[in-house]
Design brief:
The protein has 387 residues and is an alpha+beta fold. It has five helices and 22 strands. It folds into two domains: 59 residues, no CATH class; 289 residues, Methylamine Dehydrogenase, Chain H, CATH 2.130.10.
């Protein structure tokens, strides 16, 4: 019996030491990933691949291109503390509440518009504020203090990306709201501005106050703006696009505020006259490794829809957009508008006058170009998509 006790004690110690070693190794890899030095990542590549397989099997991680390092590091850092911050959605003229694990109708909201609506909750899933690109509303569905942010009628600022709300890293009360100027209709051919506002939720007893607004980031912006989590799990990348040159601008939002990261092109362009190409989604994949760009325009002379679908690679470590894939589909005179990735990023869905599916399981231009499938032709025009 004594030998049995000794056996179990030794086994326990071995398991404990092995587990501590595993945790230590993961921490080392994680720290090295955060250093902007590719040699450090490669030095641990073989060891990290082993943990990649372990974590993927337990967390159902999908490897997309070169993004596996970023995905793992985000998970290790627990970049979504509760998952309840996006529990309440306002889409079109309807509201959805996901706090009980399923979608329930949410009522009482003040907005009445077709798009450009964004909302955010606290860690417990309680509504903080929301916006329709005209006003910012507090949790009581009243216009927030200094919350009038737009000038036209209350139809909903026509920003198809539904704008962008991000919490400031390191702050419990500050939020940044990014909003492109509205595109009034498909014949609106004037370049717009990309602006931001800052909301302080510590003001007015927790109802919030807009402490800055109408701050200009870009003078010639399309209506596109997107945010991607930095692979350190704390900071954010904000992506805008020049309406004329198609050049991307990337900013970094961290505890010190907003700073310019760089201006870049991915190597592909849609070849649509910018006067027709101000509208459409810019949507990142869940891993942050890809960005889908949908361009929607209308040629008034020839009375045909102009469209383009582009796929760009993105590095959440450096904030770099690169290696765009030239996609060509037979969508002549089709209205395209929205985009969304499937949960595992293996599919891309495009909306507009119809719904199409694109297979991204193999990131090869030829394979992607022949993968387009029509899902439904019974769809409403001018519609977006959200997952």
């Amino acid at each position: 019996m004594k030998n049995v006790y000794i056996f179990w004690i030794c086994l326990f110690l071995i398991i404990g030491v092995s587990f501590r070693s595993l945790i230590w190794d993961i921490d080392v890899i994680e720290i090295e990933l955060y250093k902007n030095n590719n040699s450090l990542v490669k030095k641990k590549e073989n060891q990290f691949t082993a943990y990649e397989d372990i974590l993927r099997s337990k967390r159902n991680i999908t490897r997309i291109g070169e993004s596996v390092y970023n995905q793992i590091s985000v998970l290790l850092k627990d970049s979504c503390p509760t998952g309840l911050e996006t529990s309440i959605w306002y889409i079109g003229e309807h509201g959805l509440n996901w706090n009980k694990g399923f979608s329930a109708v949410d009522t009482g909201y003040a907005i009445r518009g077709g798009e450009a609506q964004t909302s955010i909750c606290d860690r417990n899933g309680n509504l903080l504020f929301y916006t329709d690109n005209n006003d910012i509303f507090n949790s009581l569905h009243q216009v927030m203090d200094n919350g009038n942010i737009y000038f036209p009628s209350r139809a909903g600022g026509r920003s198809s990306t539904m704008n962008l709300i991000l919490p400031e890293p390191g702050s419990d009360s500050l939020y940044w709201f990014f909003y492109p100027d509205q595109i009034t209709d498909q014949t609106d051919t004037f370049a717009k501005k990309l602006r931001y506002a800052i909301i302080d939720m510590s003001q007015n007893g927790g109802l919030g106050k807009v402490v800055q607004k109408h701050q200009i980031l870009m003078d010639t912006s399309s209506e596109r703006v997107e945010g991607i989590r930095h692979c350190n799990g704390k900071d954010w990348w904000i992506i805008g696009q020049n309406a004329i040159t198609e050049q991307f601008t990337v900013w970094k939002l961290d505890q010190n505020g907003l700073s310019l990261n760089g201006k870049m092109n991915s190597g592909v362009s849609n070849n649509i006259d910018w006067k027709f190409a101000l509208r459409g989604y810019l949507k990142s994949s869940h891993s942050g490794a890809q960005i889908a760009e949908v361009t929607s325009g209308y040629d008034r002379v020839n009375r045909i829809y102009l469209n383009a679908i582009e796929l760009h690679h993105f590095d959440p470590l450096t904030g770099t957009i690169y290696n765009g894939l030239p996609l060509t589909f037979n969508l002549y005179n089709e209205f395209v508008y929205g985009a969304e990735f499937s949960s595992d990023d293996s599919k891309l869905y495009i909306t507009g006058s119809k719904i199409w599916q694109i297979d991204l399981s193999v990131l090869d231009t030829a394979e992607i170009n022949k993968s387009l499938v029509l899902i439904s032709d019974q769809y409403r025009r001018n519609t977006g998509l959200r997952y």
